[in-house]
Structures are given as C-alpha cells and as structure tokens.
Amino acid sequence: MAFSNLCLLHVVTVLTLTTLQLAYATPVQFKDCGSSLATIKSVDVTPCPSLPCPFQRKTNVSVVMEFTANADISASGTKVYGLILGQLVPFPLPDENACHCMPCPIKKGTIVTYKNSIYVKEEYPKLQLVVEWKLVSGSDVVTCFTLPAKITD
Ligand SMILES: *[C@@H]1O[C@H](CO)[C@@H](O)[C@H](O)[C@H]1NC(C)=O
Where do the MD-2-related lipid-recognition domain residues begin and end (predicted)? Predict the structure, then answer.
C-alpha cells in the first residue's frame, strides 16, 4: 500500500509503549486555542506524568486527541508551534497531512480519534515552552490546543 505513513507506524509504537506506560496515559490539562470545526473531548500525551510535559530529547512523544466534529471535514493538516518567549516558532513535522492520523473524510457529529507523535531532536534547546497543536482545514481551524512542555535530556 502507498500508505506506509509515519502516523500508522507511530500507532504501533504507541500501543507498545502504552502497555509499558499505562500509569502515565492519563488525559492532560490543555487550553483550547480556537477550535472551530470541532470540539476537543480529550488530549493524551505520552509520556506526560505531570505538566509541563517533559519532552525528552531523542524520544518520540505521542499525542492522542479525541474530538467531535461540528462540520463535515474532507481534508486537514497538522500545524505544531512552540511558543517561546512570546514568539510562535513552527515545529516542522515530517508528515503534515492530518488525514494520515485519523480517518477522513469526517462527517459532522462524528467522534474522531487523532493519533500522531513528534520526535524531540537532540539539537532542540533545553527550555520550557507552550506547545500549540492545531488541525486546520483550508483557512478554518478544526481544533487547537496548547499545553506547557519542557525539553529535557
Ligand atoms: C521514533 O519514531 C520513528 C518513526 O516511527 C522511529 O523510526 C524511531 O525509531 C523512533 N525513535 C525512538 C527513539 O523511539
């Protein structure tokens, strides 16, 4: 299949990790930052035993979000930013197609599970930041949440 995408691989990794890290797999407190086409029900970050979520360098951090669609959504992209000293710094993802992380198209009223992960690169500076995670569809915001994180060794 042409569908050898990262997100699905991540799901397998996450499932493996989940068995090891069940104790940490609790929903995190997030802030909504303008979800419009959908309503976020929960956000899980693994590992994130407490806030700010420790983003350990050279590891994958998994993000699972459940939301209810308030509109039909045919296509969507993932945009991740770090809010560092008041500046929104783009956090490039290898695959920004959010439809590789959830089933598309989405019908209004559907509850959707979105699963993705990010690799925390060794060269990222060790600092505390606010992560802004946004799903967009054209110029519309599907979902947007922020949570505090801290890049660690
Ligand atoms: C992170 O995920 C990628 C893609 O699935 C994988 O190739 C890599 O080995 C993972 N790295 C770690 C440290 O788990």
Answer: 30-149
With respect to residue 112, please indicate whether it lies within any of the assigned structural domains: yes
The pair of structure tokens assigned to 132 is 């802004």
89 part of a folded domain: yes
Task: List, chain by chain if needed, residues with CB within 6 Å of any ligand 1 atom.
Answer: 6, 9-10, 13, 58-60, 119
Q: Ligand 1, atom 1: nearest CA belongs to which residue? A: 60
**pLDDT tens for residues 47-67?**
999 999 999 999 999 999 999
Give me ligand 1 centre to Cα 34, in Å: 31
Domains identified in the chain, total number:
1
> Has residue 34 been placed in a domain?
yes
CATH code where residue 35 lies: 2.60.40.770
The protein residue whose alpha carbon is closest to atom 13 in ligand 1 is 59
Look up the domain containing 90 and give its range. 27-152
| C-alpha 148 to ligand 1 mean position (Å) | 23
pTM for this predicted structure: 0.83
Q: Is residue 56 assigned to a domain?
A: yes
Q: Which tokens belong to 21? A: 């890290």
Q: List, for residues 105-133, the tens digit of each pLDDT value.
A: 999 999 999 999 999 999 999 999 999 99
Tell me the C-alpha to C-alpha distance, in Å, between residue 118 and each of 9, 14, 88, 91, 105. Answer: 12, 12, 17, 9, 24
Bridge partners, residue 63, by sequence: 45, 116
